[in-house]
Specification:
Blueprint lengths: L3 E7 L2 E2 L9 H4 L2 E5 L7 E2 L6 E3 L9 H4 L4 H10 L9 E6 L2 E3 L3 H11 L4 E8 L7 H15 L12 E11 H13 L1 H9 L13 H15 L4 E3 L2 E3 L20
Parallel strand pairs: 1-3, 1-6, 2-4, 3-5, 8-10
Antiparallel strand pairs: 6-9, 7-11, 8-9
């Protein structure tokens, strides 16, 4: 039986319109995941399940200060295993999404039929990677060695990649990547700090953008059925203040 939670990561807001088309059973699987204690929150009263990252038994604020954003929540969920207890699948979403009617019921029904399905929201062409071909190749090698699986460059370069964190994955898929982020945090951050492979020469990458691409490469490489979720990403409808609070002055992901 499928048991899934949808963790919606927010640093300041979560509006009713995000969940207004869900029925009560669907709404019961939605969890508001708050980050950044100092930022005032405006959260709809329709959501009754909350996590505040700074209150967790294991928490590390460096994932926020280093701009992991929602990807830092993956590590915190993994390092606080009671949050994932008895789950078969994990949904990771942003505050700026909108569930469509029956969207969670549809995901559950598909997972009952095919439990190893990975749901994504956005697939992008490789031209939008902001990486050069040799950088993709080196990043795939870096990941393959540490994840102990084949991250195949040829599936990405010249093709498409899963963009953004928005996803639903089997629990083992989620935990493997979260463990990778946790175990190799210093190595991952050093890619940008040391300008490995000259990766910063043509684009001022941030860690959230690097990890976004790693997550997308990883999901493709799991060789599981892929299906687009019926959830809208309303990026353009929001003011993303955190994009201008990182000191770079750039909106590049």
């Amino acid at each position: 039986m499928v048991n899934i939670n949808f963790f919606i990561v927010t640093y300041d807001k979560l509006y009713t319109r995000v969940i207004e088309e869900l029925d009560q059973q669907e709404l019961n699987s939605v969890v508001c995941y708050n980050v950044q204690k100092k930022v005032k929150k405006n959260i709809t009263s329709k959501i009754t399940r909350f996590i505040s990252e700074w209150e967790l038994p294991w928490n590390d604020y460096s994932y926020q200060t280093n701009q992991y954003y929602e990807y830092g929540s993956m590590v915190h969920l993994f390092k606080n295993p009671k949050l994932l207890e008895n789950l078969t699948h994990v949904g990771l979403l942003h505050y700026d999404i909108k569930f469509k009617q029956n969207s969670i019921n549809e995901i559950r029904a598909e997972l009952e039929r095919t439990p190893n399905t990975i749901f994504y929201q956005m697939m992008r062409p490789y031209q939008q990677l902001s990486f050069l071909e040799n950088e993709v190749e080196e990043l795939c090698k870096f990941m393959s060695d540490r994840l102990e699986m084949n991250i195949d460059k040829t599936r990405i370069w010249g093709g498409t990649w899963i963009s953004e964190a928005l996803s639903v994955t089997p629990i083992n898929v989620f935990n493997k990547f979260a463990n990778f982020l946790c175990t190799y945090q210093n190595d991952i951050e050093d890619i940008l700090k040391s300008n490995r492979w000259n990766i910063m020469n043509h684009c001022p990458h941030r860690i959230c953008g690097l990890v976004e691409r790693m997550w997308g490469f990883y999901l493709l490489s799991c060789n599981m059925p892929l299906k687009q979720m019926n959830i809208i990403h309303e990026w353009d409808s929001y003011s993303h203040q955190h994009m201008t609070m990182n000191g770079t002055g750039t909106a590049t992901i």
